[in-house]
Amino acid sequence: MADQERDGRSAAEVEAARKLFAGPCAFVAGAASLDSLPAIGLPEIAFAGRSNVGKSTLVNALTGRRTLARVSSKPGHTRQINFFDLGGRLFLADLPGYGFAQVSRSMKETWQDLASAYLRGRPTLKRVCLLIDSRHGVKDSDRETMKNLDSAAVSYQLVLTKADQLDRDEIERAVSTAEAIARRHGAAHPEVLATSSTTGFGIAELRAEVALVARG
Known about the structure:
This protein has 216 residues and is an alpha/beta fold. It has a single domain (2-215), classed as P-loop containing nucleotide triphosphate hydrolases (Rossmann fold, 3-Layer(aba) Sandwich), CATH 3.40.50.300. Helices cover 38% and strands 19% of the residues. The chain has seven helices and seven strands; from the N terminus they run H-H-E-E-H-E-E-H-E-H-E-H-E-H. Strands 1-3-4-2-5-6-7 form a seven-stranded mixed sheet, sandwiched between helices. Strand 3 and strand 4 (90-94) form a beta hairpin. Helix 2 crosses helix 7. The chain is globular and about 45 Å long. It starts with a helix and ends with a helix. The model is unreliable at 1-6 and 70-77 (pLDDT under 50).
């Protein structure tokens, strides 16, 4: 309860978010081009980040499903924007990773052009969860993405992944460092959330944040 009060989330909000994410959730579309994006309708929360940062794994953890979003240890596995319908109330969008994916330069450019066009032009996009590996912190490619989101006036929030591989003091330092960086970016949400898809650490808090943003 103390953590919920600190984060400004009531027990009722956390429970409502748990029920939302425990409800029906299904893959609805894989968009490899702007023409194949789902029709505008439900509010959307997108998950972006470097290749292999754990986007698909986090989507699975949030929804309590192991295989909703396909997971691979090989960087660059997600090659389109995958949309999941959460109970007919919002879409979760899993974007292709950026960074060190072992694919051709032209393929990387195609993915990034698609992601950039989606992020800049999707009126139902409520927030981007920008995932950062907690062990490595914000990298140059993350900073570039943050600058692009700032210029497009797209609201985003830094979410640290793989926090189970750090001790408590390291997690607190990682969060503080990321929050200091976020404060220098106009479109960034000031609060940084640390999560672990392995242990469930921070998952309830992220669910509550996503549910709150989607309602707004």
